[in-house]
Amino acid sequence: MKRLENKVILITGGASGLGLAAAEKAAEEGASLFLVDMNEEKLQEAAEKLKQHGTQVEAVKADVTNEEEVKQFVETCVSTFGRIDGFFNNAGIEGKQNLTEDYGTDEFAKVVDVNLNGVFYGMKYVLKEMKKQGAGSIVNAASVGGIRGVGSQSGYAASKHGVVGLTRNSGVEYGEFNVRINAIAPGAIMTDMVRGSLKQMAGDDWESFGEQFVQANPSKRFGKPEEVGALVVFLLSDESTFINGSVITIDGGQSAKY
Predict the structure, then answer these.
(1) Looking at domain 8-189+224-253, what is its CATH homologous superfamily?
(2) What per-residue confidence (pLDDT) applies to 218?
(3) Alpha-carbon distance 75 to 53, whole Å?
(4) Concatenated DSSP letters of 198-230
(5) What is the value of pTM for the model shown?
């Protein structure tokens, strides 16, 4: 039996990056998928790709910063599939890089709205369903920037530290209901978001800068989205039923070194 067979998995930011990588791994493990993203074109492309696995996939365009839209897509997922067994609460943005004194107030608010408020709204409505079911697993997307400083990313670091706090607090609250809430803390995983960070730092020379950048990592390389997807699937599966309120790094040893 596959690890997510007969399970319904909801994924925000599911059209690309870590969300799509997790969706692909979940599809391989037999899950039915409900994907949410702002990019409707990429969302439909992802859904068609996943259906090639023989997976049942529903895809909805929605903004995680809009609480009413979050409430609606959670209700739609339940009305479509009957339940939500797992939730990868993944939608997020990087924001611009700048020293704190020069960091735009509007930019800070925007990053926190997506990365922290969006995660909170998702938890709020999914937890209600999981509590009624008496079971469920939530995986929040934090970052190594949520457990240490990263420099020039005040909004991102503040929002991801907030995700870590929400994860731990809710893990304490919902363990008695057989609902688990954990977070992953990826390091330098080669996604469009990381490419964007490198381009902000190094411009057209971002590829060579990136190769120099990862030499400081004990693993001497960037992580792969599918490696993160595999961790997410493990945490959503019944193989991890005694892991709750944890923040699990997947960074090639970066945070261990620093």
Answers:
(1) NAD(P)-binding Rossmann-like Domain (3.40.50.720)
(2) 93
(3) 25
(4) HHHHHGGGHHHHHHHHGGGSTT-S-B-HHHHHH
(5) 0.95
